[in-house]
Write a structure and sequence with these properties.
This protein is an alpha+beta fold. The chain has helices spanning 92-101, 151-163, 189-210, 243-255, 257-262, 268-271, 299-304, 320-335, and strands at residues 3-10, 19-26, 38-41, 54-64, 73-80, 108-119, 122-123, 168-173, 179-187, 213-215, 232-235, 286-288, 295-297, 309-311. It has eight helices and 14 strands. It is globular and about 55 Å long. The protein starts with a strand and ends with a helix. Bound molecules: adenosine-5'-diphosphate (ADP) and manganese (II) ion (MN) (3 copies).
Length: 336
Amino acid sequence: MAIRAEYMWIDGTEPTPNIRSKTKVIDKGTSLKDLPIWGFDGSSTNQAPGKASDCVLRPVAVFPDPIRGGDDVLVMSEVLLTDMTPHKTNTRAALVEAAAKFADQEPLFGIEQEYTLFKGGRPLGFPESGGFPRPQGPYYCGVGADEIFGRPVVESHLDACLRAGISLSGINAEVMPGQWEFQVGPLSPLDVSDQMWVARWLLHRIGEDYGVSATLDPKPVRGDWNGAGAHTNFSTKAMRENYDAIITAAEALGKNAELHVANYGHGIEGRLTGAHETAPYDQFSYGVSDRGASVRIPWQVEQDQKGYIEDRRPNANCDPYTVTRLIVETCCSALA
Ligand code: ADP
Ligand code: MN
Ligand code: MN
Ligand code: MN
């Protein structure tokens, strides 16, 4: 019987790429090895000139489609040139290499994706008549119609992710009205990144049904309102066993701070200001329990003398393929 496979890929939009998708009707099996290579018009996605517009889609991960249901699938894909080498927008290819090089260290990631729900040009919970809601304070993990905006969208997204087999570890309402978070992981670098992109696609797709758009803008409202990040929690086997490795990893991130911040998402200077639970983008720091540091060591980790660290710098609009690659390269090199 014919099934629908929704192929998704990351486009060439600058400065921040978007996820795109289109449907292929297929009548063969739907395991990764059965799914055919496909293509798209790269001249419509800022990935190719019109005269040589074909780009190749190669499936890299497949999930049950929780929206269409049945045997239909979601297919995360990578973009190749027609000679089957990685397209320059294919940031996954470099992660494949880094993950293979340091696989013996067994790196794991849990990423906290913050986002903001918008309708009619303003975040949910911001008055339609203009102006601002009550200042931040009661919204984070709140309950009740005066504090929580968009819960049906969020619950529907949670449900869809779980039915797709995505390893969500939780959700919560955030500090600004209309702002939410979901966490993916802990998983390997490639799995967390593939699943994060699919979870983002599901968020945008479910938003359509509610007439609400989700933005990953790192600073959706100027002024005294929290930005949106993608705190990236990281460990290796050694870090899960001893505290020296935790410190080595945190120190290594400090030595490579500029490179990391430059690749943690467009507009990071506007978010990492030193206010709103951030450290300034141009000053590196780490500390136990410190939500004003670049890198936080959770108190439980100090207590247990092992565990993981939280890199608080990545923006909500970061590319998880790039963020996890940089963290693996920096920390695993230092720990090798
Ligand atoms: P926060 O207190 O910063 O809001 P969250 O509960 O939102 O923390 O997120 C913590 C994340 O850390 C989760 O995604 C979880 O999967 C991840 N995590 C837990 N243990 C590890 C580990 N050993 N290595 C990597 N990530 C981990
Ligand atoms: Mn969190
Ligand atoms: Mn958060
Ligand atoms: Mn966090």
